[in-house]
Design goal:
The structure holds 2 protein chains of 2 kinds. Chain A is an alpha+beta fold. In chain A, 26% of the residues lie in helices and 24% in strands. Chain A has an 8-stranded antiparallel beta sheet. In chain A, strands 5, 6, 7, 8, 9 and 10 form a 6-stranded antiparallel beta sheet that branches. Chain A has a 4-stranded mixed beta sheet with strand order 1-2-4-3, with helices on one face. Chain B is α/β, with parallel strands linked by helices. Chain B has a single domain, classed as Rossmann fold (3-Layer(aba) Sandwich). A 7-stranded parallel beta sheet of chain B has the order 3-2-1-4-5-6-7, sandwiched between helices. In chain B, helix 1 runs parallel beside helix 2 and helix 1 crosses helix 7. The chains are: A alpha+beta, B alpha/beta. At the A-B interface, helix 1 and strand 5 of A face helix 2 and helix 5 of B. The complex binds flavin-adenine dinucleotide and NADP nicotinamide-adenine-dinucleotide phosphate. The site of NADP nicotinamide-adenine-dinucleotide phosphate (NAP) has 28 residues of chain B, from helix 1 and strand 5.
Chain lengths: 467, 245
């Protein structure tokens, strides 16, 4: 018997069917009901986007902290199953891959061949799509600028169903509105990314103990021309005199020849580490001003002595938090908000002092606080600007939102801004004032997606698009 | 270097199994109806592992084309050392329970298509006296349930057919493995209500590959489905017919 007589159903189950799911970002605040799709084939994605049912938003690995990858009561498309690599050209170090591929996979596949993504955030578990949509930055921002700098082109699936290749030359407006555009211009499909050549999986540099803020800033200024990567952990629980005391870590990828002879044989081999995980939500009182203060003082005390030459494996250098799975659970069920802001260079010192003092006075400890100097930046909505950036974690608690509104006002008054990929609460008027290029972005957005088929909880909250 | 044919290659489980074979140096032929996707997966595996990966079309329910298809795939590979059967559909169970054509479509996609392809492949493997076959069945084939008995019966048929074939092929030194798979998080189960004990495709593929490497005959993936189904099979029919799952 031939199949001709038998109607064949082609829908194998189907990811055309949504799953109603309470989604949140990495901060687990807010958590909102969305209709979640997860296509495993391009044709499934195309038909989801073609349907007019409700507004739609692409989602990557869900590592944005707040509501950037949420679309409450509307459709969200998880792209993590569209994660195929397409080609790699060693002479130009250029990888083509689908947007659902994570930096983690790229590192696994290409580090042993001597390539590494030039820009990586504090976690390796982010997708290419999310990295472009938030135009992420890493510890090398002062050298390499943001993620988009390494992106040669990408294909964008528009609301109309058309696919456009976007680069600095082709559809340049679409390119620049998508970089930092938080998923609101369409679905990023395939990405052409230039990797960096490295000779080992190790970094060599220094750990510098800075007893106060001025010492920390001075250390950044002194070392940034010498090192590709720099970052400081800052003790935001310390008071007067010690305000802003930090441990600065600066390093370059180690050339093979500088490794000890035993390691030169296998310069890309690092020991896989035991990865503990936080199995359940800690009670809300686990993180309180006392534990935060003790933890931060202990970290500072652990780093005795002044500058120490050090060798780090890339994993502990770039992704220290990834060594504890689900660390976001230490903040308990209510979740937490990450607050990351940047000040223009001339305002940075005053802005930092004012902010650290306000945090000290509020007794809202931030468990982990990171300080970093940014360099040059292109883009319409990209977050970085030349100056200093501070990132803080605050457990959700009564009065927190009012407190963060106060920080916003101080940052805004100095011409600074707050990072959308971390945000869960900024007011629309603050956002509009912090991002002066917003009207230009809105113009392009309206030309690509006139009916605003692409939307998100963030876009509506911050009024990035008309209500 | 093993030359392996993967049927139903657009399944995420098949894709990850294929990647395991590729990492161990195999040359692959990935087949599905959706050739565009099969080609993407083939390219992906070769970029990641450096393996040679071909791809092409087959339709499990188009029996007349099977002999040519197996021949072409073997030619492309240069030989045929192993076949992985990972195709299948839940089908539209509601439709299948009232429309005989829909019921038969489910049977063909899961069972009779496999019978046809396995018979052709078995012939080759038996003659060359080496090779393997991995057949992805389902715990749904262990006992018929009101909710999905059309699919379940197709898988039950597949299990029994594979079991017999294993006996015959043992004489030729060919390894035939039945995988009784529990719920896996793929498009087949996405958004379906009442799915439980779901595992990731990665975990499924890792366990299946490990079982293949230790030359298992019948394996439940994950292992806990063996005791669960052991108990489910013991429930008296009179009671079982009233249960809701
Ligand atoms: C521990 C940790 C450390 C971090 N460190 C840094 C850091 O150092 N620097 C930094 O810049 N960021 C950092 N981040 C934030 C993170 O890099 C960004 O939020 C990034 O966007 C997350 O990528 P994702 O794949 O998880 O995207 P998601 O969180 O899923 O989505 C983020 C945004 O991208 C959009 N998007 C995702 N995929 C697509 C697509 N294919 N097409 C169109 N739009 C898409 C979404 O709509 C959403 O607006 C950190 C996050 C964590 C959890
Ligand atoms: N997911 C589960 O919970 C679960 C549980 C037990 C067993 N299983 C079994 O595991 C296997 C893989 O399933 P999955 O969950 O990964 O689902 P899936 O992603 O839908 O994979 C099904 C595969 O079968 C192919 N296929 C379907 N009908 C076909 C036909 N007529 N001809 C040729 N190819 C056909 C599909 O190819 P196309 O791209 O051409 O459609 C696809 O590659 C199946 O045998 C399934 O029965 C799954």
């Amino acid at each position: 018997m031939s199949s001709a007589a038998i109607p064949i159903s082609t829908s194998a189950g189907s990811s055309g069917r949504p799953k109603r799911a309470k989604l949140s970002g990495w901060g687990r605040y807010p958590a909102l009901d969305c209709d979640l799709y997860r296509p495993e084939k391009f044709s499934e994605l195309a038909s989801i986007v073609a349907s007019n049912a409700s507004s739609i938003l692409a989602r990557g690995a869900g590592r944005a902290y707040g509501d950037a990858a949420l679309n409450a009561d509307n459709r969200v498309v998880d792209l993590t199953r569209l994660d195929r690599m397409i080609s790699f050209d060693p002479p130009s170090a250029t990888l083509s891959a689908e947007a659902g591929v994570t930096l983690s996979e790229i590192i696994d596949v290409f580090l042993p061949r001597g390539f590494f993504p030039a820009v990586v955030p504090g976690t390796r578990y982010v997708t290419l799509g999310g990295s472009i949509a938030a135009d992420i930055h890493g510890k090398s921002h002062h050298r390499d600028s943001s993620f988009a700098r390494q992106v040669k082109s990408f294909n964008l699936l528009l609301a109309s169903g058309e696919i456009r290749r976007c680069s600095r030359e082709e559809n340049a407006d679409f390119f620049w509105a998508t970089v930092g555009g938080m998923g609101l211009t369409g679905v990023i499909l395939e990405v052409e990314l230039e990797l960096r050549r490295v000779e080992s999986a190790w970094l060599e540099g220094e750990e510098i103990r800075a007893p106060n803020l001025d010492a920390a800033l001075e250390a950044f200024e002194r070392t940034d021309s010498q090192y590709d990567n720099s970052v400081a952990w800052i003790d935001c629980a310390s008071g007067a005199g010690k305000l802003g005391r930090s441990i600065l870590t600066v390093a370059n990828f180690a050339p093979r020849n500088s490794l000890p002879p035993a390691m030169r044989q296998e310069p890309f081999a690092i020991q896989p580490k035991f990865q503990p995980s936080v199995p359940f939500d800690l009670p809300n009182f686990a993180l309180n001003p006392l534990t935060v203060r003790t933890f931060n003082a202990a970290i500072y005390a652990m780093h005795r002595g002044n500058a120490r030459p050090k060798r780090f494996d890339y994993q502990s250098f770039f992704f220290p938090l990834d060594s504890i799975h689900n660390w976001n659970r230490i903040y308990g069920k209510r979740g937490f908000v990450q607050y990351q802001c940047v000040w223009p260079e001339t305002e940075s010192r005053a802005g930092l002092i004012e902010t650290l003092e306000a945090i000290g006075a509020s007794r809202r400890g931030s468990f982990l606080t990171v300080l970093k100097k940014f360099g040059a930046q292109d883009g319409i909505l990209s977050f970085p600007m030349p100056g200093y950036t501070l990132a803080l974690d605050f457990p959700v608690a009564d009065g927190l939102m009012e407190f963060l509104d106060r920080l916003d006002a101080m940052v805004l008054a100095r011409g600074g801004r707050v990072y959308l990929a971390k945000d869960a609460r900024m007011r629309p008027e603050t956002f509009h004032a912090m991002y002066p290029n917003l009207p230009r972005w809105q113009q392009i957005k309206a030309s690509i997606d006139p009916n605003h088929r692409f939307s998100s909880s963030l876009a509506r909250r911050a009024m990035m698009i008309p209500a | 270097m093993a030359k392996v044919l993967i049927l139903g290659a657009t399944s995420p489980i098949a894709r990850l199994l294929a990647a395991h074979f590729a990492e161990d140096g195999a040359t692959l032929y990935l087949a599905a109806r959706d050739t565009a996707e099969a080609a993407k997966i083939a390219t992906d595996i070769s970029v990641r592992t450096g393996a040679v990966v071909h791809s092409g079309a087959f339709d499990a329910a188009d029996f007349a084309t099977h002999a040519d298809f197996i021949e072409r795939a073997a030619q492309k590979l240069g030989a045929l050392d192993g076949v992985v059967l990972c195709f299948g559909t839940l089908g539209e169970e509601d439709a299948a329970q009232i429309d005989p054509n829909a019921a038969l479509a489910t049977i063909h996609q899961n069972f009779t298509g496999a019978v046809s392809l396995m018979t052709l492949a078995a012939h080759r493997l038996e003659e060359q006296k080496r090779g393997f076959m991995i057949v992805i069945g389902s715990v749904a084939g262990d006992r018929g349930r009101a909710r999905n008995y059309v699919y379940g019966s197709a898988k039950a048929g597949l299990h029994t057919f594979t079991q017999g074939l294993r006996g015959r092929m043992a004489r030729a030194g060919v390894h035939v493995m039945t995988v009784k798979l529990g719920t896996v998080d793929t498009r087949m189960t996405w958004g379906r209500e009442g799915t439980l004990l779901t595992i990731s495709p990665t975990r499924a593929a890792d366990s299946i590959y490990a079982a293949y490497r230790r030359k298992a005959e019948v394996v439940y993936v994950p292992w806990f489905w063996r005791p669960i189904m052991g108990i489910v099979k013991l429930i008296p029919e009179r009671m079982f017919k009233r249960t809701r799952f």
